[in-house]
């Protein structure tokens, strides 16, 4: 039975984006198991313990993914009001909900899955639901209005594979907000045990690769790259890349 420090446990399980936040949560008394509050970062816990919980501030969005997009919009001061948007990998609709909340005119919610979009969004006339739809092959028959903004939170696929079809359909000066997920961008031999990418050099390598691809092959001006406020699956770090395509090609 493998045991690790409590702060490391919170990091690995996605409760905290870094060790400092993990330790802060412990010190604030927000970490507990069935029996007691856990107040020491060095406490040894079972790596597979399912009873350890963290009392985080509640949000009312359909998914915690909404917090990722909010971070990007706030950090880079992007206002989607009045925009037509594509949400690639829409899933339950966290990104879509935020876009509409902040004034987007219309969202094409694209996902290869079926039945995932939350029921409170499904009948919204400002959402065009494109389920069972592979974003790599989007056409004008599906995306009937040129989008101003493309957002993407997709898994098991590289951004270099999923984005080009949307670029071809979007306005020349479209904006982009996308999640870089290193575990889906590195070479197979670079993926660490358990599918977690911990090496910061690999994070940097992947972010630089995607930035260069957008700049050199798709004529984007990159505003910046910031770390996602929450961890992805299995505790992987994710990064938000934000930019705008230049009008002249």
Topology:
Layout: E1 3-5, H1 6-12, H2 19-27, E2 31-32, E3 44-46, E4 53-54, H3 66-75, E5 84-88, H4 94-101, E6 106-110, H5 119-122, E7 127-130, E8 149-152, H6 159-162, H7 164-169, E9 175-180, H8 200-218, E10 220-227, E11 239-245
Parallel strand pairs: 5-6, 5-8, 6-7, 8-9
Antiparallel strand pairs: 1-3, 2-4, 9-11, 10-11
Walk me through this protein's architecture.
This protein has 249 residues and is α/β, with parallel strands linked by helices. It folds into two domains: 52 residues, Roll (Structural Genomics Hypothetical 15.5 Kd Protein In mrcA-pckA Intergenic Region, Chain A); 180 residues, Vaccinia Virus protein VP39 (Rossmann fold, 3-Layer(aba) Sandwich). The protein has eight helices and eleven strands. The strands form three sheets. A seven-stranded mixed β-sheet has the order 7-6-5-8-9-11-10, with helices on both faces. The protein has a two-stranded antiparallel sheet with strand order 1-3. A two-stranded antiparallel sheet has the order 2-4. Helix 4 links the parallel strand 5 and strand 6. The termini are far apart.
């Amino acid at each position: 039975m493998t045991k690790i420090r409590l702060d490391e446990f919170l990091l690995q399980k996605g409760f905290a984006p870094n060790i400092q936040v993990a330790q802060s949560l412990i010190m604030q008394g927000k970490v507990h198991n069935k029996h007691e509050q856990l107040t020491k970062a060095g406490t040894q816990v079972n790596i597979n313990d399912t009873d350890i919980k963290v009392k985080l501030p509640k949000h009312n969005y359909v998914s915690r993914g909404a917090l990722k997009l909010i971070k990007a919009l706030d950090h880079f001061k992007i206002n989607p009001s009045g925009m037509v948007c594509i949400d690639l990998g829409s899933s339950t609709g966290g990104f879509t909900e935020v876009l509409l909340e902040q004034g987007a005119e219309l969202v094409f919610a694209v996902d290869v899955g079926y039945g995932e979009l939350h029921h409170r969004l499904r009948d919204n006339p400002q959402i065009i639901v494109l389920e069972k739809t592979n974003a790599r092959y989007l056409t004008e028959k599906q995306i009937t209005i040129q989008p101003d903004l493309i957002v993407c939170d997709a898994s098991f696929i590289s951004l270099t594979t999923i984005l080009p079809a949307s670029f071809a359909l979007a306005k020349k000066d479209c904006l982009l907000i996308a999640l870089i997920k290193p575990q889906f961008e590195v070479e197979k031999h670079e993926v660490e045990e358990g599918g977690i990418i911990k090496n910061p050099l690999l994070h940097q390598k992947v972010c630089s690769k995607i930035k260069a691809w957008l700049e050199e092959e798709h004529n984007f001006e990159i505003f910046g790259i910031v770390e996602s406020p929450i961890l992805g699956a299995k505790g992987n770090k994710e990064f938000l890349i934000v930019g705008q395509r230049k009008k002249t090609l």
